[in-house]
Each structure stands twice: as structure tokens, then as C-alpha cells.
From TrEMBL:
<keyword id="KW-0408">Iron</keyword>
<dbReference type="InterPro" id="IPR041921">
    <property type="entry name" value="NuoE_N"/>
</dbReference>
<dbReference type="InterPro" id="IPR042128">
    <property type="entry name" value="NuoE_dom"/>
</dbReference>
<keyword id="KW-0830">Ubiquinone</keyword>
<dbReference type="GO" id="GO:0051537">
    <property type="term" value="F:2 iron, 2 sulfur cluster binding"/>
</dbReference>
<keyword id="KW-0479">Metal-binding</keyword>
<keyword id="KW-0001">2Fe-2S</keyword>
<dbReference type="InterPro" id="IPR036249">
    <property type="entry name" value="Thioredoxin-like_sf"/>
</dbReference>
<dbReference type="Pfam" id="PF01257">
    <property type="entry name" value="2Fe-2S_thioredx"/>
</dbReference>
<protein>
    <submittedName>
        <fullName>NADH dehydrogenase (Ubiquinone) 24 kDa subunit</fullName>
    </submittedName>
</protein>
<dbReference type="GO" id="GO:0046872">
    <property type="term" value="F:metal ion binding"/>
</dbReference>
<comment type="similarity">
    <text>Belongs to the complex I 24 kDa subunit family.</text>
</comment>
<dbReference type="GO" id="GO:0003954">
    <property type="term" value="F:NADH dehydrogenase activity"/>
</dbReference>
<keyword id="KW-0411">Iron-sulfur</keyword>
Length: 212
């Protein structure tokens, strides 16, 4: 029997990627960086983006925090939001769209202003995360202000099952917390303060409740 090759299949031109040597289509419009003269950017957003860019040797590394800042302002990564970030960072909107569509925490369509991401990965799932997710969804109902959805691992397995609520990690959650979580958001209160990860002294030396 002939020995089977374990090598990765290659195309006739020797590459694993088809079309790598295709001619560039020069008939397409070139990618354009938004013109600062015609692209208004809110002053607060510009300040946040420039501060993020100053933290990195390569300014492109600030793309993620810059997109987060734009999403916080606009509620989602709208074409306008991405264009504003592109204008400040001097990048093309296409570059930033590629980043935003890769990461699950960026919303590419309008969503509710209250973002509740319930972790349903293995540690949380084994501790009842799916039931918690269903309970929060039921409590929020059809309220358009809420964006409640399952999420992959958020890296806080020690407080499983947990959720990210407008960026605040809370847990461990149980079914009884669902109604309170939604009510806190609707009333503009702190969400389940006793279960916020940031209040734990081990997570933050300057935590609000040092003895939590």
C-alpha cells in the first residue's frame, strides 16, 4: 500500500492559499481614510481614542479600546461610529470593521443599551448558567432597552455562573437574581452590588468593600 502523505494539500502554484498571486483589481476604488474636515468627531470620543493610542508603541493596538469607546457612545459600532474612529486613528473604516466583526463584544447592529452577557461556557454551564440566562431573558421580556444573550468564556470561572452587565462582572448568580438584576438596571441602580467582582479585595486592592 502506498504511503499516505500527511502534508497539507497545496495548490498548483505551490501555495496553500488560492489566489495569492492573482493580479490586483485596479478598477476598485481605493480604501479611503475619512477626512477630518468633513468627519465630525465628538470631543470626548476623540480624547478617549487619542489617550488609548498614546499607550501603545504601535497606534493600531488601540483599535479595540477605541472601538469600545465609540460603541459606548453610540450604543453599537455603527458606520458613523467606525468612521469617527477611523478619522482619529487615520485608518480605513474597512480595517476597523474587520476588527469589530472578529470580536464578539462589538455589536454590529442596534441593540438595547443594557448589555447583559451571560457566560454559558463549560464552568458556568455546569453550574446552571443556561437556566440563569433563560430567567434573565424572561425578566427582561420584550424590553428594547435590554440586550440579553449567551456569551463564551468571560474568564471569571471562580464566580460561575456569572454575567457581564454593562461591563461589570457579577456572580455567582442564581435564578432568584434574575428579577433583581433587571430591576436594578431599569431603576438605574448598581446591579447586585454584593456580587460584583470589582468589589472583591482580591480583584482590586482599592475595592469599594475591602472586607468582601
Amino acid at each position: 500500500m502506498a504511503e499516505q502523505s500527511s502534508a497539507v494539500a497545496r495548490y498548483g502554484h505551490g501555495s496553500r492559499i488560492p489566489g495569492w498571486d492573482d493580479a490586483v483589481d485596479l478598477s476598485k476604488d481605493p480604501a479611503v481614510i475619512p477626512d477630518p474636515a468633513t468627519t465630525p468627531v465628538p470631543a470626548e470620543l476623540r480624547t478617549q481614542i487619542e489617550a488609548a493610542m498614546a499607550k501603545y508603541p504601535n497606534f493600531r493596538s488601540a483599535a479595540i479600546p477605541a472601538l469600545h469607546a465609540a460603541q459606548d457612545l453610540h450604543g453599537w459600532c455603527s458606520p458613523e461610529a467606525i468612521e469617527q474612529v477611523a478619522c482619529v486613528m487615520r485608518l480605513t473604516p474597512g480595517y476597523l470593521t474587520a476588527v469589530a466583526t472578529f470580536y464578539d463584544m462589538f455589536e454590529m447592529k442596534p441593540v438595547g443599551r443594557h448589555r447583559v452577557y451571560v457566560c454559558t461556557n463549560i464552568s458556568c454551564s455546569l453550574r446552571g448558567a443556561d437556566s440563569v440566562l433563560a430567567a434573565v431573558q424572561d425578566a427582561a421580556g420584550d424590553d428594547a432597552d435590554f440586550n440579553v444573550r449567551p456569551f463564551e468564556c468571560l474568564g471569571a470561572c471562580d464566580i460561575a455562573p456569572m454575567a457581564s452587565v454593562n461591563g461589570e462582572f457579577v456572580g455567582p448568580l442564581d435564578l432568584a437574581d434574575a428579577e433583581q438584576l433587571v430591576a436594578d438596571l431599569r431603576e438605574g441602580r448598581e446591579v447586585l452590588p454584593a456580587k460584583q467582582l470589582s468589589r472583591r479585595a482580591c480583584a482590586d486592592p482599592g475595592a469599594k468593600d475591602a472586607d468582601a
